[in-house]
Design brief:
Two copies of one chain form a homodimer. With about 375 residues, chain A is α+β, with helices and mostly antiparallel strands. Helix content of chain A is about 20%, strand content about 40%. The first copy, chain A, is built from seven helices and 25 strands. In chain A, α1 runs antiparallel to α2 and α3 crosses α4. Chains A and B meet through α2, β9, α6 and β21 of A and α2, β9, α6 and β21 of B.
Chain lengths: ~375, ~375
């Protein structure tokens, strides 16, 4: 195989597929990135068996072939090649000895047999969901923080992707809270209901463009989900099992509604966690009155009292929360004002907009009223 | 004690003294920052027994007093106070209960008795060395990388500060290499020869201004060195013992002189360490000819050949180095061209300018010529 490539194009391609290179494995071949050249096309492939990524790189093919190169070394070599010395040559002989050169720098590394590699599973592409890369990226970012990578319940380590055809709903939950984002689809797509591993979504998010003009197509089969965008294809295994009954956890009844400035509330909670460093189980206690919330945090390190102005309708309430859960939801919302809906100190609090494009459920925590 | 302060001024002051707050200690009082108010002046003090820092903060004193507050919590509280809500009030009662408030946020933390604190040692200020903060900062930055925090030789963990009156020389060495920077002093000062702990210098460097108009005064006693700048005083303990005989290690004879482009050489060495990830003892081998250096690196991961253009006078040489040592010296030099002076593959290589404002000594390493 002999290829001539632009350094930046090659580096970008390696950067994309390297998201599927496992850092530790007992099978050296899986730590590799496969470079394949056939006709005019140059393809890079990596696969950690849960997540597989393929991407095409522009370049000139002088001679077809394929080789598997250790991912970390290949990435570092290409990253450090001189950028002002013209094109990169990648030349692999029959013994898979691979020479990567650019300007005066000539690297020689031993490749492995690309035939031993585990390629991406075949995914039958029928109907697809289409959305913009930015939309998918945002939906993942705005929900991924409430997955739980707890081994005892694998479903909590994934996100529900559920579509009724014209709307995609992305859901994550960890037993203490739940995050939901809804996306209106411009084109009608298939109905789907699958659980995608959070780890896969975290990696996919790193390579999706921050761009509303670029689209991504999503295909689903029984065991896999496939994302197709730009010159890249990502296939992730799905998590098996029936996801939690999301509808049953959501209530639209409430006894009080609180409207407040998100930034003020967020900063007050950020201050409260200053005191939880050595004592992170302490709740923030909110006394919600008609015009203000009186906030209190008491830990071994000290105490904080704080007031935030609100517009409240409904009864007063004294309720405690894990401040981290409030914080993570409030940070992810972009609106200037948010509404909280509550019923009693044991019932979940909902942070949602009127159309429920976002909905964050947070369970309150018990606290000893005597210590407040 | 009752004080009214600007949030940013207070935060800056805490940030300065916190460099002397130890992260772990068996004496809780040492983890504190002391706030002292007397008359018009507000002083913050921290001391980890090796390094002590005092700084003055602008503010209004309503009531004199002193209290020791846990450094990490105090810093985090002040950092998170609302910045647009006006001044910070710090109010400490007779039981040392301290209220720090700003706007609607009211923190209450328990202070400790400031009388139990270990204050900075008295340093008799006689003659001083004067230089600009930027100059000192640069001299530390350009030498600190070659100290060794190896317990078996404490002197290697420090830097020699040696002045003959009109020139300050800063030296560090770790047994494999040595770094020297010389600074011409504008005003004649005392002759000194002391070894300052590297850890102290690293912390001092974080608080020195990046400014050639601001000066720093250095006072030395038998056991301590004192740096005075802006509103801050830093006192460090010295390392006892006779420093290495620096002059004896320096030779001005050489058999070849190589002049090269620093950036090209640096980038070639950076490429070579890509291959040393799992095999970091491998030398980079330089075959120095009349117009080029042929560079070679061979490791388990692969091989690199590279050429760098040079102007050489003197004989040819085949010599090996730990690439990390070359790298760290070359990165710190700002000149576009550098000169290397060598004699034979066993003798030290010197990288220095004509006036020896900088001098880096690097010992070569043995290598098996058969593997090259």
């Amino acid at each position: 195989m002999k290829l001539i490539l632009n350094q930046k194009d090659l580096l970008d391609g390696i950067n994309i597929v390297s998201k599927a290179v496992p850092s530790k494995t007992t099978m050296p071949i899986l730590e590799c990135i496969v470079v394949m050249a056939e006709g005019d096309s140059i393809k890079l492939v990596a696969n950690d068996m849960d997540l597989g990524i393929e991407t095409y790189v522009d370049g000139m093919v002088d001679e077809d072939g394929a080789v598997a190169l250790k991912g970390d070394i290949f990435f570092e070599i290409v990253r450090k090649l001189p950028t002002d010395e013209g094109d990169v040559t990648l030349d692999c002989n029959a013994n898979l000895e691979t020479v990567i050169s650019c300007g005066q720098a000539i690297f020689r590394i031993q490749g492995l047999d690309a035939q031993d590699f585990s390629y991406l599973p075949e995914v039958e592409k029928e109907e697809c969901l289409q959305l913009t890369q930015l939309t998918l990226r945002e939906a993942i970012r705005q929900t991924i923080f409430s997955i739980s990578l707890n081994e005892s319940n694998k479903l909590m380590g994934g996100e529900l992707f559920e579509s009724t055809g014209d709307e995609l709903r992305v859901v994550s939950l960890d037993g203490h809270r739940m995050s939901i984002r809804k996306i209106k689809l411009k084109e009608e797509g298939p109905s789907i209901k699958v659980v995608v591993p959070g780890k896969s979504l975290i990696e996919i998010n790193k390579i999706l463009a921050d761009d509303n003009d670029k689209s991504v197509s999503i295909y689903v089969t029984k065991n896999h989900i496939l994302f197709e965008f730009d010159q890249t294809t990502v296939v992730s295994r799905l998590i098996e099992g029936e996801y939690f009954r999301v509808e049953q956890m959501i209530s639209h009844d409430y006894d009080l509604k609180v409207k407040l400035n998100r930034k003020d509330f967020l900063e007050a909670i950020e201050r409260s966690i200053v005191l939880t460093k050595n004592d992170d189980k302490r709740p923030i206690v909110l006394q919600i009155g008609d015009d203000v919330i009186d906030m209190k945090m008491n830990t071994q390190s000290g105490a904080l009292k704080e007031q935030v102005e609100v517009e409240k309708t409904g009864k007063d309430i004294l309720i405690g929360f894990n401040p981290k859960f409030l914080l993570e939801a409030l940070r992810i919302i972009s609106e200037e004002e948010v509404c909280l809906y509550m019923s009693n100190p044991k019932a979940p609090c909902f942070i949602r907009d009127d159309d429920e494009n976002y909905l964050y459920l947070i369970l309150p925590v018990n606290f000893n009223a005597a210590t407040i």
